[in-house]
Design goal:
Elements: H1 2-20, E1 40-45, E2 48-54, E3 70-78, H2 87-90, E4 92-98, E5 125-131, E6 169-177, E7 190-193, E8 202-208, E9 212-218, H3 222-229, E10 261-269, H4 279-282, E11 305-309, E12 317-326, E13 333-334, E14 342-344, E15 356-363, E16 366-372, E17 379-388, E18 395-396, E19 406-409, E20 417-426, E21 441-444
Parallel strand pairs: 1-13
Antiparallel strand pairs: 1-2, 2-5, 3-4, 3-6, 6-7, 8-9, 9-11, 10-12, 12-13, 12-14, 15-16, 16-19, 17-18, 17-20, 20-21
Length: 446
């Protein structure tokens, strides 16, 4: 019986091994398609629109790493967005973002070096900038309605579509492509209301202060624009019942809405001896396109002035422009920059404050001086000045700077009445700034 069972098992194993060696039909290659771009945002600054998208982090089947080679961004101008399935029929290419191939990470290998700033990576954001041409500010024809199959004769009068009404807008749509050119599902559609640009501010001025640069400007549109913006809206009579006229012309950009506010932008010019930019950032491309400039003010300004605090004076030139902005959040529209840029080289030409609360005390063979230390962050020390009673001019007691807010003068002669004052000195090079004299004190040596 045992021999019969063993023989049956050997026969079954023989059949299984023979079946494993038999060739079956070829399997289809796995084709990965990137998932859809989940977020797309458009912001306008002058005649440029920055479109920021999220790079897909996985494929539509959930596998990783994502197979994405590029993201194409399309734009369409009209009063309503086309259906996503027909967006590409009427849109134009606004820009392409190239996504570098992701290196394969092995389990025992060290983590790869971080990519250069601005490089699109899966799960991150990338930005493409479109320059608005005159054609982009005109409503484009919407997609033609699909042809209907009719069994009877065609109608005698063709229906004419109604004229477009409503505000003129620019719509953006993004599609990710795999290295084999397979497109992702459609992204959401971003909407940007097209309005006339607010006028740039006038007569921008910059003033150097001890620790900052103060900027001032005239309002957008000048005094007339300032007054018109604050004029009361006309009141309609109760008898007035305006009837909207039918639209006979294509919609045009509307005037900007809301109060005018301002953003300040700064560019720091490198010095001649500064190191050159890295090769990755020397020539920006669509793959490493820098993000849109960011204003140095945290929120749009309601005032006509701004103070740029300086963290240190390094001799670099700082150039400023101011842009008027109207609207809020995604519908905010910035105008063109003020011209020309205002450039200054902040210099420390401001002496410290004179020391205060100088006092003197005498003991055998010496006079001790103390004073309140200065609060300026760039104080290098103090000069102690001395003279005799009746002297109009005092001279330094030592050839070196006193670093503490106290000094003991041991070079006095008994019975002589001395006059003292202290000056603060800062760290500016090659010639430091020196404060005025403190209040003088007198003391007779013993």
């Amino acid at each position: 019986m045992e021999r019969l069972v063993v023989g049956s098992l050997l026969a079954a194993l023989s059949i299984a091994s023979a079946a494993c060696g038999k060739k079956g039909p070829p399997l289809a290659p796995i084709v990965h398609i990137p998932a859809a771009v989940e977020k797309i945002d458009a912001r306008r600054r002058g005649n440029d629109v920055s479109v920021t998208v999220t790079v897909p982090s996985k494929n539509i089947d959930g596998t990783m790493p994502v197979d994405v080679a590029r993201i194409e961004v399309y734009g369409y101008t009209g009063t309503a967005a086309p259906q996503a399935s027909r967006f590409l029929e009427v849109a134009t290419l606004a820009g392409t973002i190239t996504v570098p191939e992701q290196p394969e990470q092995k389990a025992d290998a060290p983590p790869p070096a971080p990519p250069p700033p601005g490089t699109p990576v899966p799960g991150g954001t990338a930005t493409v900038t479109e320059r608005l041409t005159p054609e982009a500010l005109v409503a484009a024809p919407p997609p033609a309605p699909p042809a209907l199959k009719r069994s009877g004769p065609p109608p005698l009068v063709a229906a004419t579509p109604a004229a477009d009404i409503g505000p003129l807008r620019r719509f953006y749509y993004a599609v990710a492509f795999s290295p084999r050119g397979r497109p992702s599902p459609p992204s959401p559609i971003a909407e940007l209301r097209l309005t006339l640009l607010p006028d740039p501010p006038l007569d921008v001025k910059a003033t150097n202060l001890a620790d900052s640069v103060r900027l001032e400007w005239e309002p957008s549109g000048g005094l007339i624009g300032f007054l018109l913006e604050r004029a009361l809206a006309p009141e309609l009579s109760p008898l007035d019942d305006p009837v909207p006229e039918p639209a006979t012309t294509p919609p045009a950009p509307a005037p900007p809405q809301g109060p005018t506010r301002y953003n300040v932008y700064r560019e720091i010019i490198p010095l001649e001896g500064d190191p050159p930019p890295s090769p990755e950032s020397a020539k920006p491309t669509a793959a490493t396109e820098p993000a849109a400039p960011v204003p140095i003010n945290p929120a749009p300004l309601d005032t006509l002035a701004f103070v740029d605090l300086l963290t240190g004076l390094d001799g670099r030139q700082r150039c400023y422009v101011v842009r008027a902005v109207r609207g809020d959040a995604a519908q905010a529209v910035e105008g063109l920059p003020s011209e020309p840029p205002i450039c200054v080289v902040p210099l420390d030409d401001f002496p410290p404050e004179p020391p205060t609360r100088l006092s003197a005390a005498t003991s055998e063979g010496e006079i001790r001086l103390t004073w309140e230390p200065n609060a300026e962050p760039d104080i290098a020390g103090y000069l102690v000045l001395r003279g005799e009673a009746g002297d109009a001019t005092l001279t330094p007691v030592t050839d070196t700077v006193v670093t503490e807010a106290r000094f003991t003068d041991r070079s006095v002669r008994p019975g002589v009445r001395y006059v003292y004052a202290v000056q603060a000195i800062d760290t500016r090079l090659p010639r430091p700034n020196v404060s005025l004299e403190s209040e003088r004190v007198e003391e007779t040596a013993r």
